[in-house]
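Two records follow; treat each independently.
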Amino acid sequence: MSVTKVYSFESNAHVSQALGEFIAHASSEAIAKHGRFTVAFSGGSLPATACKHLRDMQSVDFSKWYVFFADERCVGLDSVDSNFRLVREELLDPLVQQGRSVPADQVMVINDTLTDSTQQVADDYLGKMQSVFTGAKTKFPEFDLVLL
């Protein structure tokens, strides 16, 4: 039987702290288990909430992260509608300022030169996922964490 846990927090700040700790723990477990952490971010307020405390956690080995985007829009990477832009502003850029980073080739962004064709963007992104999940035991990628 599956057990569902529901958490309640007093404020957004408490949610952000708890979510950062949850992600850090998931990252540590995944890296210990198979040498990397695969995470997919959605957009909206999630990147700010998830990354506010996470980016300052010195115990997190961001060099082993592979970052994907769960519901990226078919827009340029600098567009205000880009989920990548949100994650870049809330996590990736602040890490670089600290002298830490997720390697650029481990941040799986859409090819924004293809945005005139959503099918081409999707096909290209599928290829990026397949390159990371090559040799997986299942037909479909199994992410360590998907944040929606």
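The next record belongs to a different protein.
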Amino acid sequence: PVMRDVMERFRPGAIVMQCGTDSLSGDRLGCFNLSMKGHAACVEFMKSFGVPLICVGGGGYTIRNVARTWAYETSVLLGEKLDPSLPYNPYLDHYGPEYLLDVPASNMNNLNTPEQLQQLCTEIHENLRHIPHAPSVQMQEVPRDWPDPSDESGEEEEEEES
């Protein structure tokens, strides 16, 4: 619920969500263990706020998993179901041996204890309490254009100088 608190606190008019996939299980550089469906659940959760949402890529170094995840997350954003079996295409060999639209979590040990996660959430909630809510911009009068195109006196001055 950290993001729920962030949304309530700041009430953004839009969200830009960076959906890098280096947190997926099996990523060449990342050392995390998210499944594709767990990753997409984050997108689904942010979509649930009903705020305009722009999702962009980034990060992810096991290309076959990046492609699978972004295809799946696009279907989540559109509210469409995809067949878990990948269709025949010239790149199908890159998705074997299972040829499925899935990136499952591995049997990697989760070194995050529930206590550590709870402590982290508590610290974030405490930090949020100290940030002013729903930041906004003060209303200010817009300065006039200079020279004002509707002001004919400027034209007269130019004619007098000629």
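Discussion point: Strands lie at 15-18, 53-56. How would you locate this feature using only the token line?
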